[in-house]
Amino acid sequence: MAVMAIIFTSTACNSNETEKQAEAKEKVAADQPAATEPAAETAGSGVTQTAFADKYWVLESSVVEPAIDLNMDGKADTDIRVMLEKCELDDAEMFKSDGKLLKDFGSSKCDEEETNGKEVGNWKFDPATKQITSKHDDTEKPQVVTVKEVSGNKMVVTYAFTSSRGNHTITGIYKAK
Fold first, then answer.
1. Please, which residues bridge with residue 70 across strands?
2. pLDDT tens, 66-98?
């Protein structure tokens, strides 16, 4: 769910994405291990795959600590959603139990050709580390986020990356759609 878009919604409407946004997304997508296997079953880790699978998740809020200039405007940003187009703010992603990643483009479409329920990649969950590894079809590198909490209609994930300014952590709060 792009950090998953960008934490999960990082798969932008490519036809509307600016070069600066693409560069910033590449900066955030630090080197991660490959993810091509389907989702694994989970057992007794506190956070389980069934707690978040088969639901659409929308990025409700995000915090980058310490702040960094994500959209290349010369000002430090604390919210990764500055990298998203307005039409992407209502996008959601679903982690299907079979390892497929689906996208719902919301009611505000970036492109007339966007269809909801589109398969956009794959994912897997490691219950031992509580990490989701997702690989979107339109990205070269997979992304790994750590699930900190899943309760009802709320999921909290973190994503760590290194920039020229040091180490950063993004905390994303998602709500079920």
1. none
2. 999 988 899 999 998 988 999 999 999 999 999
Q: In the 8-state DSSP scheme, what is residue 28? A: H
CATH architecture entry for 19-176: Beta Barrel (2.40)
**3-class SS string, 31-94:** CCCCCCCCCCCCCCCCCCHHHHCCCEEEEEEEEEECCECCCCCCCCECCHHHHCCHHHCCCEEE
CA atoms of 143 and 145, how far apart (whole Å): 7
Single-letter residue type at 102: L
Cα distance between residue 32 and residue 165, in whole Å = 19
Of 109, 89, 110, 92, nearest to 101 (Cα)? 92
